[in-house]
Amino acid sequence: MVSTMHDSRRPLRGRWVMGAFAAWVWALAAVAMAAALPGQEMRLDLSPPMVVNEARHGTPAGLVDEQRLIIGPPAGNPASSWEVPSQHRKEFPYSAYLDLGTERNLASLWLFDTHGTGDVVVSVGTPGQWRDVATYGCGAYMQWVRIPLEVSSRYLRLSRQSPGAQFTEVALYEFTPEAHRAMLERKAEEARQEAERQAALEQAREEARRRPLVEMAPYGTLSLLDEVDCALDTGHGFYESRTSASRVETVLDRPCRVLPPAEGEGAFFGYRLGAMKLLRPGAAYVLAVEYPEDVPRSMVVVNTGNETSRGFHTGATVGDAFHAKYVNNLPESLHVPLSGRWETWSLLFHLHDRFPPRGLVRGAKPRPLTPADGFDVTIAQFSARNMPLSRGAAAARIRLFEVLHPEALAAPLRLPPGDLPRRRLFWREEMSDGVIGSKDAKGDQRGIADAIEWYRHKAELMRFAGIHTFSKDLLEFGACQHWDPTPGGGNAWVHFDHTTKDLWGRIVELMAAYGFDILPYYEYSGSRGDKGLGYERRCRPLTRDDAYTHIRWIENANADITDPATYDDFRRILDLTILRYTGRAPFAGAWIRPRSQLPVSFGDGALERFAGEANGGEPVSRDRLQADRALYDRYLAWWNTKRRDFLVAMRDHLRRNGLEDAVVLFTGCPGEPGVPFPSWAPVMVTDRPEAWREVLARPEHATAKGETIQAISLQEVVSRSLYLDALTAPGLTWGGWEVQHARPADDPATYRTVEGVLLTHAFNRLYTVASPATLEAFRTPTGLALVRHYALNENMMFDREDKDILGYFVADMERSGPYCRMSEAVAVARGDPTMIGYLVSNNMGYGFPAYVRSFNANFLALPALSSRVLENAADAPDITVRTIETDGHGTWFALVNTGMGPVNARVMLPGVTVLRECVSGRDIEVQNGAAEASFHPFELKAWLAP
Asked: What's the rounded Cα separation, in Å, for the pair 145 and 686?
């Protein structure tokens, strides 16, 4: 989530005045008051003599000296406050109390929140014997805030815990007799419900002693907390998108609940799990969904317990929404075998403190559920038009387990010796950190009260998955994320949220304690502050003066990578986010992705630099560049070298300052789904074009322009180098915009001999990694970096009126079972990447973790050195064998099954007499230079001949 709150841009304080504006404010406050108060409340008359200062310093009487100006619900901007002399600010907390003269049935306290944040504690009782009834964090700004009290007392105490707890006037309200009786009746009912809750918890404690234990790979011993029989159970708070949206069918000889594809709308059903089961925030749990692999199906599992939305698909389904609202999801259909059995999708997760019901929420929104309430699990699917070939989501049983030995969850990793370069796996999440987005850690809008725990959950998932490089966005579309730019100029340079400025430092320490390397991620657009470089927008389009694209919210800032000022600007960011921490954690380098905000610049400065560096000093104008194609092509070639020079300069800056092996990754693709083919003609890729042509001819699959989507074969993409053409083409443009300059083409040939700087090769579908030549084009002396671009599938869960039906919806899709690592395995076979990253739509999770852990462990066991294919090394055509030869560390082998089925193979390795598995360390029997091995589909094995 982007956060740009900063004190220097807030409006100045002003005195409260009567008049039209005050009347308008009063009217708004009256509406808010009416909504907030369940019954009639009356304001008490307060005056400075009622205030008793418990401290030797300060003037708390200023909190009640403007009472006569308050009319009706509190309104306006009172000016005087509880002043504390600056020389005594280190003596906080400060307390004062109101003596109301007699006991009052207090309903609420209002205070006018001004600047800063800090707790104010509200207490009742008698002097010396206080009972805290409320704490407010002063998280609002220049507005009245209501604090419910619902207590009877003569005395009301306010304690400011820190100087940041700043507010001016207070207003105090008491109940009318009728409202007080109603409040007491409500509290009695709440007490009765709480008694029932405690009884249920006691029953749960007794039940916990008898919970069955289950062994489930790769989690170890689990304790069964809760389960739902989807065919029979209409308890567990059963809900569905509309009445009879789902139905019970018998599938593979077992009753289950099925969601038939629905025309024009998504559909779902779900349950509340874990209610009164003694769930613990932060504890590790496993959610398991049993589904049939009988026919092609596509489905999404939404787990609000840790706000994760992950989807999977089977058979020939395309997975991601076929007609996404905002982007081209690049559909691909492959006839993946179906197991014909009941299978299990499972998710390891750490429970949040609070969570929303049913679907996800975006940012700081109410999360009313607590662990005692349980959390919702939803089985969902897209509309029929968006999931062709899918026969509907289906599930027979949903179970919730507690992990009994979380310390044993870590995947075993055996990395190459320290003097050999190592491979990397990492991910970045886009739409997830709204979980910790609220400034009020104690309210109901933050999923996890302590933000660092959110990142501890990430670290634990990394250990489980077998990943040892942590990545996080520090700039999101140019906006500062959780780091402190104060030493570089503060808000004048980079707008930042002062309440989260120290989080990055805490994250660095956490990840270092886990032993992870760190690769920060930057969506750089020039610094965005009051005087920031980005807002100067020094980049200028070629044919227009307003903007490169129609997307206004990315056009507010940009940076010219040919400009020396941009070098200085980004170096300063690296200084404050990486180099200041180099003694505290190992950094791998920097990952830059500009999101179309480092465009090709045709501004005056860039034109002058081109003239002096590449045009013999002859001036160049924009008009001339438009008229002279050869000159324009030379300008783009020059700009490409300047982009390379910028990235090399950032590499050198890191290396000169202590990061000897720092690398810089550059991801030019700004979109979520990845890189489309460079044509407006609608296409999809499939291994069976003929089977799809009838489907695509149906009217519902015509594009908005009435075009028919064309099915092309995987073989055609490879033979015609269509994906390499896509990767090296600029963005398609339209309507007089300059998308081709906002998203300039990748130019991997420019980096062919450059060490330590890598353009990332975008991948997702099988066709994106099927061509060895395409992968080889992006290789550098440092290796090959692949980044998987997941599709957001944003807002694709809607009803027939196109309204959202499951909150804010995003979801990543993966293939089921061993096929979930199809693209990665084929990439190793065809091109052997040394780094693989993932651009994830929301909270990361793995539905088929055994296959993920196996791939990751074997991938990381191999050194990050160049390899070559051993031709005909295996007697099975689907097995590819690569060899990596080293000095002093033996010969390494990467063996990959690129076939759709399991394979037993005999592998010939002439001259090898001793061989072992890298991950397990077990010896492999070798006879006459040959070894035998069994592979599941798309399995990677790492072997070593020492």
From this structure: 58
CA dist 28 and 30 (Å) reads 5
Specify the 3-state DSSP secondary structure of 735: coil
Per residue in 372-406, pLDDT (tens digit) is 999 999 999 999 999 999 999 999 999 999 999 99
For residue 798, what are its two tokens?
């809607």
In the predicted model, is pLDDT for residue 10 greater than 50? Answer: no
Kindly report the number of other CB atoms within 10 A of residue 902's CB atom.
Answer: 13
Residue 788 burial class via C-beta count within 10 angstroms: exposed 0-12, middle 13-18, buried 19 and up: buried
**Residues ≥6 apart with Cβ < 8 Å to 639:** 562, 600, 601, 606, 610, 744
735-764 pLDDT, tens digit each: 999 999 999 999 999 999 999 999 999 999
Hey, which bits of 481-550 come out as E strands? 517-518, 521-522
Question: Dihedral (C-alpha) 162, 164, 167, 171: value to the nearest 10 degrees?
Answer: -40
Q: In the block, which residue shows the tokens 């749990």?
A: 285
Dihedral-angle region of residue 921 (phi above 0 means left; psi in -120 to 50 means alpha; beta otherwise): left
Side-chain half-sphere CA neighbours of 777 within 13 A: 19
Answer whether 297's CB lies under 8 Å from 390's CB.
yes
Residues paired with residue 89 on neighbouring β-strands, in sequence order: none
Contacts of 90 (CB under 8 A, 6+ apart): none
The backbone torsions φ and ψ at residue 373, rounded to the nearest 5 degrees and listed phi first, read -75, -20
pTM of the model: 0.84
Nearest to 471 by CA among 588, 581, 575, 579: 588
In this predicted model, what pLDDT tens digit does every residue of 407-453 receive, in sequence order? 999 999 999 999 999 999 999 999 899 999 998 888 899 999 999 99
Q: Fill in the DSSP letter of residue 425.
A: E
CB 697 within 8 Å of CB 708: yes
| C-beta atoms surrounding 488 within 10 Å | 16
- How far apart CA 739 and CA 669 sit, in angstroms, is 12
Residues forming a β-bridge with 758: 665
Residue 708, CA distances (Å) to 346, 397, 681, 687, 696 in order = 38, 40, 9, 18, 7
830: enclosing H helix or E strand: helix 822-830
pLDDT in the model for residue 31: 33
Please answer whether residues 647 and 666 qualify as being in contact, where contact means their C-beta atoms are separated by less than 8 angstroms. Answer: yes
Tell me 450's DSSP state: S
